[in-house]
Amino acid sequence: MTRDRLQGQGVAELIDRLEERVLQCDAEGRILFCSKSDTGLLGYKPPELAQRRLIDLVHPDDRTAFPTWPGPGSSSPRATLRLLSVDGAVGWCEVQLHHLFDLGSIAVVEDVSLREQARQQADEMLTRLTKLAAKVPGVLYQYQQWPDGRACFPFATDGLFDVYGVRPDQVVTDATPVFEILHPDDVERVAERIQASARTLTTWRDSYRAIAPDGRTVWLEGESEPEAMADGSVLWHGYIREVTEQKLASERLEASEALYRAIFHNVNDGIILHRVMPDGRPGPFEEVNDVACRILRYSRDELTKLAPGKIDDPEAMLDIAAIMQSLRDTGHANFESLLIAGDGTRIECEVSAHQFEYRGEQRILSVLRDIRERKTAERELRQALREMSEAQDALRLHARVFESTREGIIITDRNNHILTVNAAYSEITGYSAREVIGRNPSIVGSGEVDKSVYREMWRSLDSEGHWQGELLNRRKDGSVYPQWLSISAVRGDGDDVTHYIGWLRDLTREKEIERRIERLSNLDSLTGLPNRSLFRDRLEVQAATSGKRGKPFSLLYLDLDRFKIVNDSMGTESGDAYLQKMAERLVRLLRPTDTVSRLGGDEFALLLPDTDAEGAAHLAGKVQAELNRPHKIGDRTLSLTVSIGIAIYPQDGKDYQSLLTAADVAVNRAKEKGRNTSEFFTVELQDQARRTLQIETDLRAAMVKGELSLHYQPKVDLASGEIVGAEALLRWQHPERGAMSPAEFIPVAEETDLIVEVGHWVLDAALGQQVAWREQALATLPVAVNLSVREFRQPDLVDLIARKLAEHRIDPSLLELEITEGVSLDDSIGVVEVMQRLRKLGVAMAIDDFGTGYSSLSYLKRFSINDLKIDQSFVRALDGDNQAIVTAIVGVARGLGFSTTAEGIETAEQLAFLKRQGCKCGQGYYFSRPVPADEFAALLRQPKAYTDLISPV
Question: CA-based angle 899:821:603, to the nearest 5?
């Protein structure tokens, strides 16, 4: 190989100084010259490169990408290729071919291995990040927007398809497909918020709707941070997730409260709700709407501290007893009242009161209307009529009042011929003034009012000059409506009647409110069945009837088995649909004289008149057969069973409470027997229920009387025999029954909120005992306390435990909380979040009796726990199956990084087996029974008391 041609040009030395390699080749691509000949190329010495084709040095897989040698005076594009070194190693180079008129074919080769390695590492990192982002719920994305309106998604995870039905590659250059599926009503608002975020470079955060590929409207929630780019665009980094279920759940919760509030607050009149006291007097105001506060000029807090009579004018007190008697007799009372407002103003009000039963108590709903304007107008109008002939100006003044009032006004002459009506009258009745003037007001009569009402009206007008009351009248379109009418007689100078003035108000809306309130009071809002209150009324009427006739009737108490599974797995909407179908089937199954009621939740009751025990048992079988048939709920088919308790009148009870209690006791026995069966009430069941109630009563007193105590069972390291902790166990020394078994009283406490009070007592006692041991200079060891499902559901559980630890000045690491699998699987209480907060607090967590419940590994790996406690039932009978279960539990715990503690160790053989499997700790009678605190203190003075019991495996 020679440099003559280059040397002759006087540029070889200059070329040697370049970073790139310059190769001179012949027409067939063979190498004639290589710059930097002293170091060679790719490990080849200059003689080894001579006459070799440059393409032969290219990796075989890249040779198709090798550029074509150019014609004279031109160059090829740059190509990045892999070249093979003399030892077979691969290096990345960038190659460009030139054809110079004087020098011929020239190849410029640049080593870019470092650059390619960096690019590959970046690609690998991007691939890993993309895979990681794909695991995140929803979609992670980058959204870029330029000032001219162009926008795209440079990056988005595959979750974009799940959320929008759009693939990421569809929006890399144009974001339009994403915006096309936004709900039409939300597009403009979303765009405005994006623009605002771009202008201010502040966080974009929004909730909005989109149309899913299947046509559903879904709710989305997103958040992203903007970043200004050098090219003038804005780049957002953020996430989007679907929140439809959360939105619907929130809307359902709000709707259940909004129904009553909408009725209560969206009326033009003041409304006051209060209960009827046991002595029959009206009680304090319970709730008032804004209009009532505005009329009476009191705040809501001030009004709810008052009662009827407290705001009445002392000089115009009403006959409260007569009003209450009217409410008791008819359920309604209408009257006018003079009230003293909060600022001392006297207010004339028209009151329409309605009495109804709600949750077993009588309540009164009073509708108040400020009639000062009406009264003033009425007085002014009378004065105007008296002075009509003398003061036309005054008449025009009062005419303005006449036309502007919101109530209908009708004026007749002494013969009851209509002289004039105002616009409100025409709006209410549909008749114009031209159509009614000169006619009798009876043209709006409905024909549905008894003639005695009109006779009483004219009698009152003749004797008292005034009448008011409720009528049913007919509009021009034929529709009948309720109307409140107040008529006054106008007398002239000779005391003769000259005119009649009628004030009328349309009561349609008020009556609808009354009907809604009555429906809410008596019917279940979900199924439309009689609620507990109405069912009680019907049962008591039936008891009175059956008592006179000497005939029995039956009460069936129905409780769906495992209904919670439906709500937990399919949602409350599916659960509600199931209950509605169940109600429909029960109604079809019963006689017209029977009553089916929804008492609440998944509990129903059947009232069967003239039905004895045999008939009740027969119907119970038919009910179970009917309800066991599959229900179609959406695209799912469900089949649930039902437990039934039966009580018969009169042997099982003679009133509502005794019969319902008897049926409830019977249905509990049916569930204890395995569910999907029916049980009659018996005296034995009643005795058992009384015993349960007595235990509950005595247990409440036990906490006050100091009958409860804690015993402590040591937790032993199976490798060293050292005591490493203790479990606090509740004991009860009953003054009459002696030592009570926890198996007898703990289930009773768990059925009620009493377990929460007991749990607080246990936590305080255990922490207080640790303080006592610390003051005795004894070893400080972790103490385990058990938590029930009800305790875990306390919304302030974490704060409570933190407060107790602070009060006793106990290190959180010295407290271990034990929960059962039943607690850990209850998603309704946010188990994972609570456990994480407890772990963050520093408290240790353990799952007790592991292996006896659901034992879901998918749940287990999410929990922030320290220890799995193997249930004693597996340890005490170490046969082949139980040995396999224990081995599996220890293996799972080891794999997930948990410790294991075996309960119920009683023999050396059990201990030896557990040690061989790698179980870390143990408890049981082999070491010690649970002992009082002072005896456990003696054990703490000998921390290695059980070393002799530990033998080598």
Answer: 175
Residue 185: closest CA among 210, 204, 166: 210
Structure tokens at 679: 């049980």
Evaluate whether 142 touches 155 at the Cβ level (below 8 Å): yes
State the Cα–Cα distance between residues 818 and 844, nearest whole angstrom.
9
| DSSP reduced 3-state for 34 | strand
CA dist 709 and 932 (Å) reads 8
Least confident of 455-464, 562-571, 868-877: 562-571
Q: Token pair for residue 209? A: 């709707």
pLDDT digit string, tens, across residues 786-804: 988 778 888 888 999 999 9
The CATH homologous superfamily to which domain 262-370 belongs is PAS domain (3.30.450.20)
CB 109 within 8 A of CB 98: no
Q: Residue 17: its pLDDT value, please? A: 64
* Angle at CA of residue 864, ends 860 and 869, nearest 5°: 60
Those residues whose C-beta lies under 8 Å from the C-beta of residue 704, and which sit 6 or more positions away, are none
848 vs 231: CA distance, rounded Å: 61
Question: 3-class SS at 126?
Answer: helix
Query: What CATH homologous superfamily does 523-681 map to?
Result: Reverse transcriptase/Diguanylate cyclase domain (3.30.70.270)
Helices (H) and strands (E) in the chain, counts: 34, 36
Q: Is 890 exposed, middle or buried (0-12, 13-18, 19+ CB in 10 A)?
A: buried
Which pair of tokens denotes residue 348? 């004339």
Q: Provide the β-strand partners of residue 357.
A: 362
CB 314 within 8 A of CB 339: no
Determine the Cα–Cα distance for residues 108 and 24; give it in Å rounded to an integer. Answer: 9
Query: According to DSSP H, which parts of 24-107 are helical?
Result: 46-49
Query: What are the CA-CA distances from residue 293 to residues 75, 265, 521 (Å)?
Result: 91, 11, 25
CATH of domain 4-117: 3.30.450.20
User: What is the C-alpha to C-alpha distance for residues 331 and 318, in angstroms, rounded to an integer?
Assistant: 18
- Same topology, domains 373-507 and 523-681? Answer is no
- Written in H, E and C, the secondary structure of 98-117 is EEECCCEEEEEEEECHHHHH
Q: How far apart are CA 83 and CA 85, in angstroms?
A: 7
Nearest Cα to 729, choosing from 716, 751, 746?
A: 746
**Tokens found for residue 343:** 């600022």
Domain boundaries, the chain: 4-117, 136-242, 262-370, 373-507, 523-681, 695-942
Cα separation, 886 vs 665, whole angstroms = 39
Beta bridge pairs of residue 236:
143, 226
Would you list the DSSP string of 263-301?
A: HHHSSSSEEEEEEEPTTSSEEEEEEE-HHHHHHHT--HH
Q: How far apart are CA 674 and CA 681, in angstroms?
A: 17
- 1, pLDDT greater than 50: no
**Runs of H (alpha helix) within 46-203:** 46-49, 113-134, 159-164, 176-180, 184-200
The per-residue pLDDT for 825 is: 55
- Grade residue 136 by pLDDT with cuts at 50, 70 and 90: low
CA distance 106 to 461: 125
Q: Which CATH superfamily is domain 695-942 in?
A: EAL domain (3.20.20.450)
Max intra-chain CA distance, the chain: 147
Query: Per-residue pLDDT for 826 more than 60?
Result: no
Amino acid found at 454: Y
The pTM of this model reads 0.40
**What is the fold of 373-507?**
Beta-Lactamase (3.30.450)
